[in-house]
Design brief:
The protein is an alpha/beta fold. The chain has 2 domains: 228 residues, Zn peptidases (Aminopeptidase, 3-Layer(aba) Sandwich), CATH 3.40.630; 95 residues, Elongation Factor Tu (Ef-tu), domain 3, CATH 2.40.30. It is 25% helix and 28% strand. Strands 1, 2, 3, 12, 13, 14, 15, 16 and 17 form a 9-stranded mixed β-sheet that branches.
Length: 344
């Protein structure tokens, strides 16, 4: 099962560079549709704009789902300060300690964009005695627009309003020895694995074992991505980043199968089948528990859906910050995804 890793890497970069903070799907939906069309599939949407690509299986008596959420962390504008800087509300689990100094883009409701940077109110040690010690949070970190604005009315004249989205530049980097450093590896890497799997199926003329739905949700980062699942789906596998921490057996080079997250153990039988699939396809894997982590799969159970659930993904350092993983871990994740799709 040879995955086209050059395609996967290029696709991951395009997806990461396309802004999609929680609930903002205007720019990423056309890209999902482009990749689906490339491999002969159509995209359908539910009323929450979750995107679905459905692939008929050899056995049509059962439908399974591969979920890779499309939303990332970001902000909404909650206010305009008197000096023209912007107050923010986080969408998703932003760590304000690691966003200061980042470049951002403001996306207005009328389609205009403006760049800026995130600064602390007391931004310079040359100017403020507490520049090093001031807590970085929603009340102290603002957007400094790359526009000659001096007061709130200058900002409003640009068409910037409360409720406009603000995306963070990802700073995507690939080293010569295969390390990926970027924001939003969570979860654009898993999306890229899904498209690489679709590419392999199409080019090799293969069908999944069962009807397979590839799902891309837009509210995972606030715990609502998998709350609704179409009735025909009986197995739901979330592919997401795996956390590297004190108890981890995983690594950046491995795919990690999650046995339990903060909410619940995942389905025993389905998790065992993923372990067996990883061994059959010779994917370097680990099994771990995550304590402060959830996925669309556990949210799907909380939503009352009648499902078996599981989760796996590449090991990632510094989740919800500038993350790091390795192409080997991404390849092992894609290989396990393909093995599950083909073998069940």
């Amino acid at each position: 099962m040879k995955i086209d890793m050059s395609f996967l890497k290029d696709t991951m970069e395009r997806l990461i560079e396309t802004p999609s903070p929680v609930g903002y799907y205007e720019k990423i939906k056309p890209l999902i549709e482009e990749y689906a069309d490339k491999f002969g599939y159509q995209v359908t949407y539910d009323n929450r704009d979750t995107a679905y690509i459905t692939v008929p299986g050899e056995d049509t008596s059962k439908t399974v789902c591969i979920s890779a959420h499309a939303d990332t962390l970001g902000f909404m504008i909650r206010g305009i300060n008197a000096d023209g800087t912007l107050r923010l509300r986080a969408v998703g689990g932003i760590n304000f300690a690691n966003v200061e100094g980042e470049n951002v883009t403001v996306h207005t409701r009328n389609g205009k964009t403006y760049t800026g940077m995130l600064i602390c109110a007391h931004h310079s040690t040359h100017a403020y005695v507490d520049a090093r010690t001031m807590e970085r949070n929603e009340d102290t970190v603002f957007v400094l627009l790359d526009e000659p604005v001096k007061k709130a009315e200058d900002v409003r004249s640009l068409g910037i309003r409360h409720g406009d989205y603000v995306s963070i530049d990802p700073r995507f980097t690939v080293t010569e020895n295969g390390y990926i450093k970027s924001r939003f590896i969570d979860n654009k890497a898993a999306m890229a694995c899904s498209f690489a799997t679709l590419k392999h199926l199409t080019e090799q003329g293969l069908k999944p074992k069962y009807n397979t739905v590839f799902a891309f949700s837009f509210y995972e980062e606030i715990g609502l991505g998998g709350i609704f699942v179409p009735n025909e789906i009986s197995e739901y596998v979330a592919v997401d980043v795996a956390i590297l921490g004190p108890d981890s057996d995983g690594s950046e080079q491995k795919v990690t199968i999650c046995a339990k997250d903060a909410a619940m153990p995942y389905d025993y039988d389905l998790t065992n089948r993923l372990i067996a699939a990883a061994e059959r396809c010779d994917a370097d894997y680990a099994v771990d528990l995550f304590y402060r982590y959830g996925s669309d799969a556990s949210q799907a159970i909380k939503g009352g859906n009648n499902l078996r659930t599981a989760a796996f993904g590449m090991g990632v350092y510094s989740s919800h910050g500038v993350e790091r993983t390795h192409m080997d871990g991404i390849e092992n994740t894609a290989r396990l995804m393909l093995a599950y799709v083909l073998e069940g």
